[in-house]
Amino acid sequence: MNIRCRVLYCAAALWSSSLMAIPLPAKPPETLAPDNYISRVNKDNSITWRLWAPSAKAVEVVTGATPDRYVAHAMTKDERGIWSFTSDPVQPNLYEYFFNVDGFRSVDTGSAQVKPQRQVNTSLILVPGSLLDEREVPHGEIHTLTWHSSVLNRERQLSVWVAPGAEKSTAPLPVLYFYHGFGDTGLSALVQGRIPQIMDNLLAEQKVVPMLVVMPDTETELDGVIPESVPPASRRQTFYPRNAQAADKELMQEIIPRIAERYNVRKDADGQALAGLSQGGYQTLVSGMRHLNQFAWLGIFSGVTTESVPDFRVTAQLKKATAVNRQLKLFTLVTGEDDITAGRDMTGLKAQLDRSGIVTDWHSVPGLGHEMDLWRPAYIEFVQKLFR
Q1: Which of 4-18, 32-46, 182-196, 212-226 has the lowest mean pLDDT?
Q2: Largest Cα–Cα distance in the chain?
Q3: 209 lies in a domain?
Q4: 46, 90 in Cβ contact below 8 A?
């Protein structure tokens, strides 16, 4: 055996022995029912979080949507090695949480529900009793469309909620295009936004008209750039403008034509709406203003705006108040009063629109920040106003 082989052999042996020195994690006893060590919602709408971690020294469950709103709850360990914490009763909603295990952030390994992100680190738990529930109503279909994008030179995918009975309708259906936020994935609107459940339930209550909801991936990953790889301090200067331009081309040149080819949909502005949250709100502003003749309904929820990410085409369009007011049947702006991420963007945009004389449907919600507790209700209210 030559010297190089001996060195590699010794290194491999040391690596193998070091792995063997680390004890494998214990697994729950086979006699213990899973209900004893997984998180659950109780009959009184309290939540009991559980985690099997017999070797851990300290475990917390951390609730809240953003770091500025996190609340850590100390968990206690029983004689079986199961950590637990039970909350007070809470309102029906979809809640975000994660575990802090001796300083390590972990999703709930006993739950299949995780927040769709490009860096997964958060779990979800549903407390029933709202429009977010799966109810016994007629259900729309979720279609997944995949194609090769010539704009981005990569494979792309989007989801479409199709109203129940749409295949039997001879009348073209209106379309809402909805964009998710920064760092999330194309599944965000489905899994965390709960758009299929919301649309099924609202339609069953006759509070929305039959339509399609098209949910593209806001992140284009142009030139292979992963959103999280861009330093936060430079995202507004380097990432948002280039991504928005690429997503705009994809929307106009590929997504809208593909939807029109695949489905019987309206092609007039009154039959097309565009909305989004956070980064998706910026996409809505950019595409909505650049192609004002394409849409009559716009919704920007906690969006990054041209206040911090300038776009000369948008700025020029916002000076044409008469044209904007004539074209848009609804221009909804929603922000949380405690939003430290995009709150200044939204209030700055509102002031700019007021100076120009552009009419808006403005909502500033006290007590809420940059979070789904703002965006889901905003979507629910917005979608009920569309295509009337």
Answers
A1: 4-18
A2: 84
A3: yes
A4: yes
